[in-house]
Design goal:
The structure holds two protein chains of two kinds.
Chain A (H helix, E strand, L loop, with lengths): L3 H10 L1 H33 L6 E6 L10 E2 H8 L19 E12 L6 E9 L2 H5 L4 E5 L8 E5 L14 E5 L2 E10 L8 E5 H7 L5 E2 L1 E5 L6 H9 L6 E5 H45 L1 H10 L3 H27 L6 E6 L4 E6 L4 H28 L2 H6 L1
Parallel strand pairs in A: 4-9, 6-8
Antiparallel strand pairs in A: 1-11, 1-12, 2-10, 3-4, 3-11, 5-8, 6-9, 7-8, 13-14
Helix pairs in contact in A: 1-9, 2-7, 2-9, 2-10, 7-10, 9-10
Chain B lengths: L2 H9 L3 H34 L4 E6 L7 E2 L2 H8 L3 E9 L14 E4 L4 H4 L3 E2 L2 H9 L3 E5 H7 L6 E5 L6 E12 L9 E4 H7 L7 E2 L1 E6 L5 H11 L7 E5 H9 L3 H32 L1 H9 L4 H39 L14 H27 L3 H6 L3
Parallel strand pairs in B: 4-9, 6-8
Antiparallel strand pairs in B: 1-11, 1-12, 2-10, 3-4, 3-11, 5-8, 6-9, 7-8
Helix pairs in contact in B: 1-12, 2-9, 2-10, 2-12, 2-13, 10-12, 10-13, 12-13
Chain lengths: 393, 389
């Protein structure tokens, strides 16, 4: 085995070529890591919105809350089912069962910083919603007064659309404005891309007396889901469909996830091919320059295999170094947000680039693998050199 | 042997390296052309959106409906509007293949073809479209994807309008504007309206209008919105182009990502090229010393190295261009058959994109040569000759 220090010194000697290959790999690992972070952010945003303990009830055939409608009478019936958890005393849940009907509307507002517009999700709800989703916390301003034209905004969407920030107001229907009095943290869930308003204000603004968009319930346990679904869907005339909350959010984020993955794969593929070629060129040059050294090593008794592994190792060290740098650089993306429409719900969703140790490790390993692939043929050439010819140069 | 042949000989001296470099440049140029073409196509969507067509939507949200009689009101009060059609997003999905997403609209069948002269139907198809209440028309790409031919019956499920809806395919439309989306489907609003519950009847999603003079579109738009200012449901009217532009802002983040990626790729290309050139220069330090000793001046040496970068960039650029044609035509076919067609019409490489791509490759090649060239030019003859590596 050729000592590793030999490889390190060799890399250090050729600063410029080493540097070029290093940055090439760094850029690729940066790209891979950023895409994985975005995908993770998306999954988390929707993953955190849904709990397996909760179920969502919508009209049969609706694929998102926006197009769904459930009569008030049915909300009561759904809430009365035995699988729905009971709230303990003095509760915000009417009738004591943990079920809440909500009205969801999409409002088209100007998207700040662009010449276009996008859709804001406004959720008309009651204080019960906060009990059902304990992760929601007001972090700035104050909670909205129930029954008034006050609303709170998720921290992700604030300031991205016209009038949607603390202290500002926007029109929800002709002549009726709501004022943003608070900002809430939703633990990274997609609720952070929503505005929450009072349900009765929404009812009157959008003429939705007697019906809501969807019903969320807390089940007595995740296992109660099947019985609950069977019970609610039994009456085909009412035409309701039940879904686990986490599955629902998985579904509405699916297409966006595919799009981001496709985009990421496309970008990463091209960058990776480019960087691998860069690494190959560097390593070929390293082999060519050092033919005398290789010959000497062989003459000293190092086997072909040790030469091969030494060069592979060198290329891998180079790539891992670049990868590490790229991965660290990609952490900067954590400060940025990706804001676009989710076509499953036709509303704006703000996704964070969320790093995890696993993502960084995967990205760095990808870099290392590129180094190995890039160094493979040069290493073979090095191993094949005849010591006699090599020393002669 | 003149200067140019010497530069060319230098380029081909290390064959393997030059092939790899050219290939690396080619991949970067290919990706650059690919991303730039997508971005161009995205902006083309805005370009082909008609200026002489206006779109009116609910002021608060394009998801909310407007009363159907708004069309009559506009016709009665805004004489500049020559034709109006209504459009309702149906959101229909093929029950056999739910993953096949395409745009489908319930429209005022009497006026659709007047407002959208881009849609071309045969006379018989037009006849069927007007007379059959369950008639639908689908664009060429849409029909191909659903495997439909004229006269076929098919059904769609809508998440907005409950139930399964049956349609008769009256015709497959072609378009007379390159890049116009042919995946969309249109059917009679009356068919929809007659079957839905009373309480949601007579609501429309959007009004699309043809006006007599595109230069007046801003004034006409204001006139329309003023008409409904005091009504319960106010409107926002803008030219189709503005509307499309605004709509596209929702996808802006994806396009920014592609935009940034295209520059990252250029950076990688510069690294590969610069690396190769730097290596070549270092190996030839000796020769540069000889050249200098023979009386060649620094500028000659500079010209050799920058010329080498230029040639390598050009070779890689041309190779990338060659690869881009089949890749882009495959991608274009894929996109024109999907719902993306509305966003990315006519994915085809523009001469300007090609020129920019090649120019960038050549420029990056020359630029990447600057650093090694600078190093070589500073060499003293004696040092250069002494160096053995």
């Amino acid at each position: 085995m050729v000592p590793v220090i030999y490889n390190l010194r060799s890399l250090a000697v050729r600063k410029r070529t080493t540097g070029a290959a290093f940055f090439g790999i760094a850029l690729v690992v940066f790209a891979i890591s950023a895409v994985l972070m975005l995908k993770n952010g998306l999954q988390h945003a929707f993953g955190r919105s849904g709990s397996p303990e909760n179920a969502i009830v919508m009209r049969q055939g609706s694929d998102a809350e926006l197009t769904s409608g459930v009569q008030d009478a049915q909300v009561a019936l759904v809430g009365a089912r035995p699988e729905v958890a009971r709230a303990n005393g003095g509760s915000v849940f009417p009738g004591g069962s943990m079920a809440v009907g909500e009205i969801v509307v999409g409002l088209t507002l100007d998207k700040l910083g662009t010449s276009g517009f996008s859709n804001l999700t406004i959720r008309g709800t009651t204080p019960a919603a906060y009990a059902l989703r304990p992760e929601i916390k007001i972090i700035e301003g104050r909670p909205a007064q129930p029954g008034t034209d006050e609303v709170v905004v998720g921290k992700a969407i604030r300031g991205r659309l016209q009038g949607v920030d603390l202290g500002q107001s926007f029109e929800i229907t002709k002549g009726r404005k709501v004022t943003v009095v608070g900002v809430f943290d939703g633990g990274g869930s997609s609720f952070e891309s929503e505005v929450w308003a009072d349900i009765d204000v929404m009812r009157s603004a959008y003429h939705r007396q007697g019906s809501v968009s969807s019903v969320r319930v807390r089940l007595t346990s995740p296992d109660a889901f099947d019985a609950f679904k069977l019970g609610v869907e039994a009456d085909k005339n009412i035409g309701l469909a039940v879904e686990r909350e986490d599955i629902y959010y998985q579904k509405v984020s699916q297409n966006l996830g595919i799009l981001i993955t496709a985009l990421g794969v496309l970008i990463a593929f091209f960058c990776a091919v480019g960087a691998m070629i860069g690494a190959t060129i560097t390593m070929y040059a390293a082999v060519a320059h050092r033919s005398r050294e290789i010959g000497t090593l062989r003459a000293l008794g190092f086997s072909r295999l040790s030469i091969l592994s030494s060069f592979l190792l060198e290329s891998m060290i180079l790539a891992l170094g670049g990868g590490l740098f790229g991965a660290l650089l990609s952490l900067v993306m954590g400060l940025m947000k990706f804001s676009m429409i989710n076509f499953a719900t036709w509303s704006e969703i703000v996704i964070a680039f969320e790093p995890t140790p696993k993502i960084l490790i995967i990205a760095i390993i990808c870099g290392g693998v590129m180094g190995v692939i890039g160094g493979f043929f040069p290493a073979i050439r090095a191993a094949r050199m005849s010591p006699l010819k090599a020393i002669r140069g | 042997m003149n200067m140019l042949t010497l530069a060319a000989k230098n380029v081909t001296r290390n064959r393997l390296r030059i092939v790899l470099t050219a290939f690396g440049v080619a991949i970067s140029v290919l990706a650059y052309l690919l991303f730039r073409t997508i971005l161009w196509s995205y902006s083309l969507g805005v370009e082909i959106a008609a200026k002489d067509r206006l779109a009116t939507r609910h002021k608060l949200s394009f998801i909310l409906w407007l009363p159907r009689h708004y069309a009559e009101d506009i016709k009665a009060h805004v004489p500049e509007v020559t034709a109006i059609t209504t459009m309702n997003w149906f959101g229909g999905k093929d029950p056999k293949d739910e993953s096949n997403m395409f745009a489908n609209w319930a429209v005022d069948h009497q006026t659709l073809l007047t407002v959208y002269p881009e849609l071309i139907l045969s006379d018989e198809a037009k006849q069927r479209w007007l007379s059959d209440p369950q008639a639908a028309i689908v664009g060429e790409a849409g029909a191909r994807k659903m495997g439909l031919k004229e006269g076929d019956n098919f059904s769609l499920m809508s998440p907005i309008y409950q139930g399964t809806w049956e349609f008769h395919l009256a015709g497959i439309y072609k378009v007379n504007t390159i890049g116009y989306d042919t995946t969309q489907m249109y059917f009679h609003y009356d068919y929809l309206n007659n079957k839905i519950p009373e309480r949601i009847r007579d609501n429309i999603g959007m009004l699309m209008m043809k006006i007599d003079d595109p230069r007046k579109s801003a004034e006409v738009a204001t006139a329309i919105d003023r008409l409904f200012e005091d009504r319960d449901k106010q409107t926002v009217t803008m030219s189709e182009r503005q509307f499309f532009n605004g709509f596209m802002a929702m996808f802006g983040a994806i396009m920014s990502a592609l935009d940034i990626a295209s520059y990252v790729l250029l950076a990688i290309m510069a690294l590969i090229l610069g690396n190769t050139l730097a290596m070549g220069v270092r190996e030839r330090t000796n020769e540069y010393g000889v050249l200098k000793a023979l009386g060649f001046e620094t500028r000659h040496i500079l010209a050799f190295i920058v010329g080498e970068g230029f040639l390598t960039g050009l070779a890689g650029g041309l190779l990338g261009l060659l690869l881009a044609f089949p890749v882009l035509s495959a991608m274009g076919r894929f996109i024109s058959d999907s719902m993306l067609a509305a966003m990315l019409p006519a994915v085809s490489m523009q001469t300007s994109t090609i020129i920019t791509g090649l120019a960038v490759a050549v420029a990056v090649g020359a630029l990447a040569a600057v650093l090694p060239a600078w190093g070589a030019s500073r060499l003293k003859v004696t040092d250069a000759l002494r160096r053995t590596e």
